[in-house]
Design brief:
heterodimer; A: 269 residues; alpha+beta; six-stranded antiparallel barrel; 33% helix; 29% strand; globular; B: 182 residues; mainly alpha; two-stranded antiparallel sheet; 7 helices; 2% strand
Chain lengths: 269, 182
């Protein structure tokens, strides 16, 4: 082998070692920069995919569209009314909490976002959304839909962010089970296979917990945690008693493989 | 000229494959296995290109692959940036050793190389994740997720070869690969 080739080979190895020793924050900054660079391609791909996906939907008759529009307008009115009612209840609730010297429940500011790609990684469950630090998104912010929790942001680029889904093993959520005093740590299963949306495991439950399928699981909101208390995460599928503790298998409330529109909690209102 | 075109084509193809992979859904009937095209493309280029160009390609391929899938949660990196450079340098060196076979028109050498490189890439990722999360999980789904992309790469490798030969025929020099540089 030529001397030049040996020198080049050693230089590449040194570069790889140097890169692998960088702090995680620096690696994330590099990734953020890279995401910003490829973002036009991701957005174009998403637009093409959407166009292809909506081809069948566009072939609707005028009557069908009119009927759909009527239904949506009616639904919109109902939701506005419910929303106003809930606002009043929320204000009343906060007033009563104040009287009882409880801490005021904060109202979160939600930023709507769109999933532009589901990552093609074999071992991790992540998605990319079309909001970045320019929109006020930061690392470790909860992402949810109207149905429940989706995950949290990790790497944030200028106009994109990576979201690790709750079905990923590395995304850990403090969770509690509805109607019980049971709390545990919820994380995704390493290998998702039975359900297209994924499954999670709720660990460190007491062995005597008598959880029933269908019981709802909410975020516990432990101090300094990423996720606020009371967000719906999923429902219990089954409960197992292990040698040390109980474990529940939980189905996510959100169909993570089909979800397109999400909200990022960017702070308190 | 041919080397420069080959290297630029490799960089372009790697980026295109990474972006294409983003929009390809997993095969649900194969336990969620995905199409992994980058190791196949890189290994083919490593067989065809001279050694320094192969190294440049390994750095680029490894870096962009890592940046695309870097997984940082709670300040912890699962697989550090730069490991893919190691991987592609090792597989680049092995593939480059088959340069003469490709020159003698034994194009089929790219088939086992593509399959082995793809499987090894996924297995190395899985091994590192398992080591970091302290615990191996044995499951048929894991085997499928490693083997199925390898089989897919083996099926696609001849198409890549003939596509490259087709485009190479338009280049000004005769369509033969340059000699070894060491």
């Amino acid at each position: 082998m030529k001397k030049l080739n040996i020198v080049l080979l050693l230089s590449v190895v040194v570069l790889a070692v140097y890169l692998s020793t960088l702090p995680p924050g620096t690696m994330q900054s590099f990734q953020g920069g890279f995401l910003s660079l490829i973002s036009p391609f991701l957005r174009t791909g998403d637009a093409v995919q959407q166009k292809i996906g909506s081809m069948g939907e566009e072939l609707k008759t005028l009557d069908e569209l009119e009927s759909q529009n009527r239904k949506l307008l009616q639904q919109n009115k109902e939701l506005l009314t419910t929303n106003n009612l809930l606002r009043e209840i929320e204000a009343e609730n906060n007033r009563l909490r104040l009287v009882l010297e409880y801490r005021e429940r904060s109202v979160f500011k939600l930023l709507p976002a769109r999933i532009i790609s589901h990552d093609a990684s074999t071992w991790w469950n992540t998605v990319k959304i079309n909001r970045g630090f320019e929109d006020g998104v930061e690392t470790d912010q909860p992402v949810l839909t109207e149905v429940g929790l989706v995950g949290k942001t990790t790497t944030v680029a200028k106009n994109e962010a990576t979201v690790v889904l709750i079905t990923d093993e590395t995304c850990r959520v403090g969770a509690k089970v509805e109607g019980t005093r049971e709390q545990g740590i919820l994380s995704g299963l390493r290998i998702q296979q039975t359900s297209s949306s994924g499954q999670m495991q709720l660990n460190f439950l007491s062995k005597t917990a008598r959880l029933e399928p269908g019981q709802k699981v909410y975020t516990a909101g432990v101090p300094n945690a990423v996720f606020p208390s009371g967000l719906l995460v999923g429902t219990v599928r089954e409960f197992r008693v292990g040698p040390m503790a109980g474990q529940a298998i939980v189905d996510p409330s959100v169909d993570l493989s089909q979800t397109e529109d999400v909200f990022v909690i960017v702070g308190a209102k | 000229m041919r080397t420069a075109v080959g290297l630029v084509s490799l960089l372009f193809c790697v980026l295109a494959c990474l972006l294409l992979q983003q929009f390809l859904p997993p095969f649900s009937y194969l336990h969620g296995a995905r199409l992994v095209l980058v190791p196949m493309v890189f290994c083919y280029a490593a067989i065809a290109l001279p050694f320094p160009a192969m190294l440049a390609g390994a750095v680029f391929t490894g870096l962009v692959s890592d940046l695309m899938y870097l997984h940082v949660v709670d300040g912890q990196v699962e697989i550090a940036l730069g490991w893919s450079i190691f991987f592609f340098v090792i597989f680049g060196c092995i593939s480059h050793g088959l340069h003469d076979s490709l020159e003698r028109n034994r194009w089929w050498v790219c088939v086992p190389v593509a399959a082995i490189a793809t499987c090894a890439y996924l297995f190395a990722q899985f091994a590192m994740i398992s080591f970091r999360r302290s615990g191996f999980v044995a499951d048929p789904a894991i085997l499928w997720r490693i083997l199925a992309p390898g089989i897919a790469a083996a099926i696609l490798a001849p198409f890549l070869h003939f596509l490259v030969r087709f485009f190479a025929s338009f280049l000004p020099e005769p369509p033969r690969l340059s000699g070894r540089n060491y």
